[in-house]
Amino acid sequence: MKMKGKWTKFCPKCGKTTDELFESVCKECFTAGINLIDPEQMNVTISKCKHCGGYFKGKERTSIEDAVVDSVRKELKRKCSGKINELKIDLIAEEDRTRAVLNVRTEIKGVELEETGEIEVFFNTGLCETCNRIASGYYAGIVQIRADDRFPMEEEIALAEKIAYSVLDKSDFISKETTLKEGLDIYVSSIDCGRKISRGIVDRIGGSFSESSKLYGRKDGRNIYRVSFSVRLPEFKEGTVLRIGDKTISVVRMIKGKGIECVDVNTHERVLLRKQETKKLKFQ
Ligand SMILES: [Zn+2]
Ligand SMILES: [Zn+2]
After folding, report:
1. Which ligand is nearest to the CA of 22?
2. This prediction's pTM
3. Per the structure, how many domains does the chain have?
4. What integer pLDDT is reported at residue 212 of this predicted model?
5. By the 8 A CB rule, do 122 and 230 touch?
6. Which ligand minimizes its atom distance to the CA of 55?
7. What is the span of the domain harbouring residue 200?
């Protein structure tokens, strides 16, 4: 009868002799007992805004891929103390559900493991912070677009609006626009956003802007201000050629409080445009 060596161990589960035991079983039995990707136990739920369709990690806007990777990592860490060497995720969006095929390489107690499996991705839908603020009509400032001794042209207003939307950051929004006979008011989500819009308009169309703040209230012991940005579009200079209806006119002078004196380029007839008529002017 052959004697077993003094230090020879055997696996109590499969009976195999082995030099190394992991949690008192052999390597094969140890790895066979690990089931990292268990669809029943993994909860991958992503925050999604039902209004803008954005995906979020906490308050931070992210892509669906990043949100899923983040959530899967957290779930894996919860199940095993080992380190995740590699994680590959393929998202499969179907009509009524989203599946994720996972491939994970981990190392637990020095043993390398690779596992592939599939889980379902769930969504927690609500309104994100930005959409919630839009819905409640929140604004921090107003950009007031006006012109000196005339009303802004419809073309200028359209251009100003286009500029306003083009400079918005992801977290900025326009909560309201009010058209007035003398111009346009744009209600914006942040003071910085109001400043960017005002500067953008002045850079493109000309004129100038100034800002003034008004105490609006207090929050968490701090004063909250609302800022008005007064954008003044430029006067028309003598010789500026514009169109109105089927006429082409040249500006002679601005008449304070009254309007613009012009001359018809073709007939040389004098044309006086009242303030409210200046809206209909068009660039050449
Ligand atoms: Zn074993
Ligand atoms: Zn949203």
Report:
1. 1
2. 0.65
3. 3
4. 96
5. no
6. 2
7. 137-233
Ligand 1 mean position to 1 CA, how many Å?
24
Based on the fold, state whether residues 210 and 250 are members of the same structural domain.
Answer: no
- H/E stretch holding 194: helix 191-205
Q: What is the pLDDT of residue 154?
A: 93
C-alpha to C-alpha distance for 56 and 98, rounded to whole angstroms: 16
- 127 Cα to the center of ligand 2, angstroms: 5
Note the pLDDT of residue 247. Answer: 94
pLDDT for the residue numbered 121: 96
CA–centroid distance, residue 134 to ligand 2 (Å): 9
Q: What pLDDT shows up at residue 112?
A: 87
> What does the CA dihedral 194, 199, 204, 205 come to, rounded to 10 degrees?
80
Q: What is the pLDDT of residue 109?
A: 83
Nearest alpha carbon to residue 80 among 48, 109, 51: 109
Same domain, 113 and 147: no
Low pLDDT (below 50) residues in the chain: 1
112 & 185 share domain: no
The bound ligand whose nearest atom lies closest to the alpha carbon of 128 is: 2
